[in-house]
Design goal:
Strand content: under 5%
Number of strands: 0
Shape: globular
Number of helices: 10
Largest sheet: none
Length: 199
């Protein structure tokens, strides 16, 4: 039980590292909480015009999801822990990104971190969802449209490739939280006031 608890807590702490804030400080950019959508994510960092910083933010947020879940898988195997621990770690790293203890619980919306989680759990599904995101993002030029589309497909895709197990079940609250964190974007989409990528 101690090892299981440490895996979940460790996943949350890894998720709590906000790469939008870390990268912005490293590049001398303003705090992402203070401009644009006020969301600490790659899309908002891109609004500074610094594409390199935005890319590093995207990679960092994705990698932390991947690393936390991959490590949980390896540790669960080594200590003969149930699959539910890996599912809990996936949810914990995602919640850490949304509500990071290191940044006053003001986190991002979770698309990149969710992508990293999926790649660790089932990389072909992660690749498919990434292609769908890119297609939607370039087609509509609106990040939230692409993100919401992938969020809707995520639990269905994991259920299809894995069946009704703990991992697939964990994707449902992740999808719900993705929609919750995009609630303002949904309102702006309905009103026609949603920002395009880079604006």
């Amino acid at each position: 039980m101690l090892v299981a608890a440490l895996i979940v807590i460790g996943a949350y702490l890894v998720g709590s590292i906000s790469f939008a804030v870390v990268v912005s400080r490293a590049f001398g950019l303003p705090d992402p909480h203070g401009y644009g959508s006020r969301n600490p994510g790659a899309t908002n960092v891109l609004r500074t015009g610094n594409k390199r910083a935005a890319l590093l933010t995207l990679i960092g947020d994705g990698l932390k999801g991947f690393v936390a879940v991959y490590a949980a898988q390896r540790l669960a195997l080594a200590y003969a822990l149930p699959e539910s621990i890996v599912a809990a770690a996936a949810l914990a790293v995602f919640i850490g990104h949304l509500y990071p203890v290191f940044h006053r619980f003001r986190g991002g919306k979770g698309i990149a971190t969710a992508a990293g989680i999926v790649f660790a759990l089932h990389w072909p599904l992660g690749l498919l969802l990434a292609v769908i995101w890119l297609t939607m993002a370039f087609g509509f030029k609106i990040s939230s449209v692409a993100g919401l589309t992938v969020a809707a497909l995520l639990p269905l895709g994991m259920l299809y490739v894995r069946g009704a197990d703990w991992i697939a079940l964990a994707m449902l609250p992740i999808a719900v939280l993705l929609f919750w964190r995009h609630r303002e974007n949904i309102r702006q989409l309905v009103s026609g006031a949603e920002r395009t990528i880079g604006r």
